[in-house]
Amino acid sequence: MVGEIAANPWRFQPHIEVWLLVIVLVASYIYVVRVLGPRAVPDGEPVVTRRQLTCFVAGILILWLATDWPMHDIAEEYLYTVHMVQHMCLTYFMPPLVILATPEWFVRTLVGEGRAYRALRFMTFPVRAGLLFNIGVMVSHIPGVVNASVSNGPLHYFVHVVLVMTSLLMWLPVCGPFKEFQITPMAKMIYLFLNSVVATVPAGWLTFAEGVVYK
After folding, report:
1. Is 214 part of a structural domain of the chain?
2. CB–CB of 173/129 below 8 Å?
């Protein structure tokens, strides 16, 4: 497989699981907007805004492009630069768009005001959310983890799920639907800057490595 990709990195490979995921997410969003929304939102108020719809479409497109052919295949078996672009799409571009696409009424209905709400507030405290996100980024780029995930499908998808979930937590204090979870504009700037700095640690290590890091 690796030899075939190296010879022809553009060889088409279908990923049915990605197509099914995209279909389920789109169908779920339509159901929320068309069925649940009119029942939960008072008359005269929009279920979703045009901005939210635009963010949803953009987020789904980025998710699809990052996890389907050709980016997924080139990233996994040919070019590590594309692998890093893929991870940036899954952690820095797609999550905030998905969060911005989610109506506040839906999240408050889903989470409620009990234990789930308190747990989410605890997990989205900036220090905790930032630590979880950066630990996930660091661990996912350990050579042993990368080498194992390339040859192990379930592990590969688990790594991506962890990255996406921790990045969602990381972005909630910045642009989440719960206004009470958000930090001040200045704190957002510092928070995002620090999160971007930590990612340069594995990047610098890879840049100045003297030998083969991933096999």
Report:
1. no
2. yes
Answer whether residue 54 is part of any domain.
yes
pLDDT digits (tens, 9 = 90+) for 102-135: 999 999 999 999 999 999 999 999 999 999 999 9
Select from 98, 107, 123 the least CA-distant residue to 175: 98
For residue 71, give the nearest of 5, 163, 143 by alpha carbon.
5
Give CA–CA dist 155/141, Å, rounded.
13
Alpha-helical (H) ranges within the chain are 2-7, 16-31, 37-40, 50-67, 71-77, 80-88, 94-101, 104-111, 115-123, 126-140, 143-151, 153-175, 185-198, 200-207
Give the closest residue to 17 by CA, choosing from 148, 159, 154, 141.
Answer: 154
Is residue 202 packed enough to be buried (19+ CB in 10 Å), middle (13-18) or exposed (0-12)?
Answer: middle
Question: Whole-model pTM?
Answer: 0.90
Contact 137, 131 (CB under 8 A): no
Nearest Cα residue to 68 out of 20, 19, 24, 25:
19
Q: Which of 19-28, 33-42, 205-214 has the lowest average pLDDT?
A: 205-214
Which two structure tokens, joined as six digits, stand for 110?
């889903």
**Owning domain of residue 72:** 2-207
Q: Is residue 155 part of a domain?
A: yes
* CA separation for the pair 83, 18 (Å, rounded): 17
Q: How many domains are there within the chain?
A: 1
Q: Which of 187, 60, 56, 47 is nearest to 125 (CA)?
A: 187
